[in-house]
Design brief:
alpha/beta, 6-stranded mixed β-sheet, 4-stranded antiparallel β-sheet, 10 strands, ATP-binding, cell inner membrane, transport, ABC_transp_ATP-bind
């Protein structure tokens, strides 16, 4: 009997329907039906040019928006589009910009306690203790509990965002270009933290990223997207070394050129 994959995505697709001034419905496909699996303790990197559908896919996986068609299974259980409580306990998301994803009017302690209040039966003392433990887990201090987001650096904010994702002990974390806005030294720290947490907690990641160096370093598998289609998918080393499709080859050439430009600029 084969082992059930941690995450199974089956013929998932997303369309947006808008109305014109003439009341005609216009349908735009964010991404066409796609399927993939993710095993425990592994990382899938999703790469693609602007408009490829990669960020929309991340949001559909995390329940930020519903799919048009298709199914998502975690540990073999189908996750209904509106079952936010179940999904939150299994899969959590880190957004690209912590400056907009963290409420500036709430201190960090309250930001981290909110998912616990909504999704667990822990009392106030238990929630407080778990928040302090989670702050320590991501390399922050107990004192940060009382800080507000605007009082800490962007790198520290992303650690808070990671702590918020971890607080419910999920199996999977979806990160939508969560390290792309960080400077190179902070980016390295966050990558090492992600790898350490993965080893320690057995986490799986779905990582939307456009940095070839990051993808090579952190991912086990890569999926390349173009105009809403998956044009290349497989083990990271194989896909990044010998792409089999024309779009995959062009995409990676663009990434390589951009990577060299940034590297030379530094």
């Amino acid at each position: 009997m084969s082992q059930v994959p941690l995450l199974k995505v089956d013929n998932l697709s997303k369309e947006f329907v808008t109305q014109t001034r003439l009341f005609r419905k216009v349908t735009k496909t964010a991404f066409h039906p796609l399927s993939f699996t993710l095993e425990r303790g592994q990382t899938l990197a999703i790469m693609g040019d602007s408009g490829s559908g990669k960020s929309t896919l991340a949001k559909v996986l995390a329940g930020v928006m519903p799919p048009t068609k298709g199914s998502i299974y975690i540990n073999g259980d189908k996750i209904a589009a509106g079952d936010d409580k179940k999904r939150c306990q299994l899969l959590r998301m880190i957004f690209q910009d912590p400056n907009t994803s963290l409420n500036p009017r709430s201190n960090i302690g309250n930001i981290l306690e909110m998912p616990l209040s909504l999704n667990t039966n822990l009392n106030e003392a238990e929630r407080h203790e778990l928040v302090l433990d989670t702050l320590k887990l991501v390399g922050l201090l107990p004192d940060h509990y009382h800080f507000y987001p605007q009082m800490i650096s962007t790198g520290q904010k992303q650690r808070v965002a990671l702590a918020r994702a971890l607080i419910l002990s999920p199996n999977i974390i979806v990160a939508d270009e969560a390290i792309s806005n960080l400077d190179i030294s902070v980016r390295s720290q966050i990558i090492n933290l992600l790898l350490s947490l993965q080893s320690r907690l057995g986490l799986s990641y779905v990582l939307v990223a456009n940095d070839l160096g990051v993808v090579r370093h952190i991912s086990d598998h890569v999926m390349l997207m173009h105009n809403g289609y998956v044009v290349e998918a497989g083990p990271t080393q194989k896909v990044l070394t010998t792409p089999q499709s024309e779009h995959g080859l062009r995409l990676l050439q663009n990434y390589n050129n951009e990577y060299r430009w940034h590297h030379n600029k530094r």
